[in-house]
Amino acid sequence: MNSTLNIAAVVIHYHPTEQDWENTYYLSQFVPVLVVDNSEQDGRQPNDSKATQVEINAPSDVSTYPIVIIENGMNRGVAKALNQGIGYWQSKNIDWCFLFDQDSKISPNFVQEMLSPILESQPQQMNNVAAWVPKYFATNLNGYGSAIQVSKWRIKRSSVCHIDGQEVKSNGLSVSYAITSGSLINMNVFDAIGIHDESLFIDFVDIEWGLRANAKGYGLRMNTDATLTHELGGEPIKWLGKRVVNHSPMRHYYYFRNVCHLLKMPHIPTVWKLTELYKLPIRFGFYALLGTQRKQHVKAMLSGLKDGLNNKTGKRNESTDHR
To answer: Are residue 136 and residue 152 in the same domain, yes or no?
Structure first.
């Protein structure tokens, strides 16, 4: 049984609101926090690789850990920011590292609930675990995200609302990938899996990393006792009595571009590739016909497909050939 663990957290900021900072301050009551800020700053050039680092304390009467901030001064993408944060905590010999988006909210018991199955296990039982992830409730969609399991022949999406059984609670529910926010990364195996793919910049970063971990023999486990509150995308599209996730045209550019990249990756399961190929024209038609800013969405999706087929990567308009 693990008696002590060195834990910390990384929070990605991008032009954070006051509420986003409140989320970060609250988290610092439970774990040391590193903020990686991708907000653009005046005067910082796109090729300026210098990042500044400062340390602050939360403005609270409650005892908190100091918050370290890495200010990139430009948007370097989610994958780069995650790698910066994880690299920082690797240098501090952290055992497990939480990853959060700025708008995610946790309950007072979240950290302890996430740590519980690790603390109750033998260290060697975690040797093949890439990460523990919580179930999440998407407030804008008014529903829980599914537990996703990719096998050779199918992709299974299971409801997380009615999962019972002591074995699941003790060992976690096996999932192939999950959203990054709220995940608890096993730092002891991170190097074996590899860093997040910075060429993707933002979308599919979590899916690619999870499936790469699977291909290398590491699994992800969902802690069904822990719940993260999160917003998935922007204002949803209401269709046939349901709320369908919606993104900005810029995000749809990355979505369609990065699908093309994952289709070319050998470690991505064939069933996932075939499923995405089937869903791609359906998604295109849905957002082209039912979304807001339809013209912008169509233009962004077509641009993403073109750049993906032409092996363009990185930040949009700053893409380089994928070699």
So the answer is: yes
